[in-house]
Design goal:
The radius of gyration is 17 Å and the shape is globular. The chain has a 5-stranded parallel sheet with strand order 2-3-1-4-7, with helices on both faces. It has a two-stranded antiparallel ribbon with strand order 5-6. It has one domain: 3-Layer(aba) Sandwich (Rossmann fold), CATH 3.40.50. By secondary structure, it is α/β, with parallel strands linked by helices. α1 packs across α9. The model has no long low-confidence stretch (mean pLDDT 93). It has 9 helices and 7 strands, in the order βαβαααβαβαββααβα. The structure holds adenosine monophosphate (AMP). The site of adenosine monophosphate has 18 residues, from α2 and α3. Adenosine monophosphate (AMP) binds next to α2 and α3.
Length: 214
């Protein structure tokens, strides 16, 4: 089974993708995570992507498509793939379609996780992470035991540059302009399943699984 999780930044796609990929035995490919790894390793791609990411803009389509296609091969050892954060533009979606067609495969479901803008802003601007161990927290929903420091190692917690309020607004604008048209695009192909993204993590996972079994 090949799936896409679609939705605004902060809709919980990353968290859900881990659960769903495990439940269905899929290869989880998160474009944001791959880009962050490339940045950390200071590769050429990582350095090019950095400028766009810190502004809350999209990285150019050709770079993203080439990067994602490189990882698709690993899905052969699994029951398929689950794409999270990709595609984010119509050009990426059509590029993906033709790559899959030439590989003799196709998408089964595109699940749109729906969350309103006001909720997204509250979720994203409260996110914190530990630069040492990578553990994530939220000021409101899952705060550390002591404000501002990691429970595991006492390191000072940081906010991702792209979770700063002005960048979050920019990311949401980009989502509405570039990514939302994909909902209609996949709807026309009969692939779209819509799921309410508000609720406990387990509840939302169940909704997604149900949508993919239907
Ligand atoms: P994410 O963690 O998915 O919110 O991604 C973080 C940032 O990486 C985004 O704000 C973009 O700058 C970049 N990015 C991730 N996926 C894509 C994509 N499919 N197309 C373009 N840029 C992307």
């Amino acid at each position: 089974m090949n799936l896409i999780l679609l939705g605004p930044p902060g809709a919980g796609k990353g968290t859900q993708a881990v659960h769903i990929a495990e439940a269905f035995g899929l290869l989880h490919l998160s474009s944001g995570d791959i880009l962050r790894r490339e940045r950390k390793a200071r590769t050429e791609l990582g350095q090019k992507a950095q400028v766009y990411m810190d502004r809350g803009d999209l990285v150019p389509d050709d770079l993203i498509l080439a990067m994602m296609v490189e990882h698709f091969g690993q899905a052969k050892e699994k029951n398929g793939f689950l794409l999270d954060g990709f595609p984010r533009t119509l050009a990426q979606a059509t590029g993906l379609k033709s790559r899959l067609e030439s590989a003799g495969t196709r998408l089964d479901h595109v699940v749109s996780v729906e969350v309103e803008d006001a909720e997204i802003i509250a979720r994203l601007t409260g996110r914190l992470y530990c630069p040492e161990c990578g553990r994530t927290y939220h000021e409101l929903f899952s705060p550390p035991r002591n404000a501002g420091v990691c429970d595991v190692n006492g390191e000072k917690l940081l906010r991702r540059k792209d979770d700063m309020p002005e960048v979050v607004r920019q990311r949401l604008e980009t989502y509405h302009r570039e990514t939302k048209p994909l909902i209609a695009y996949y709807g026309e192909q009969g692939l779209l399943r819509t799921v309410d993204g508000i609720g406990e993590i387990g509840e939302v996972s169940e909704r997604i699984k149900k949508a993919c079994r239907a």
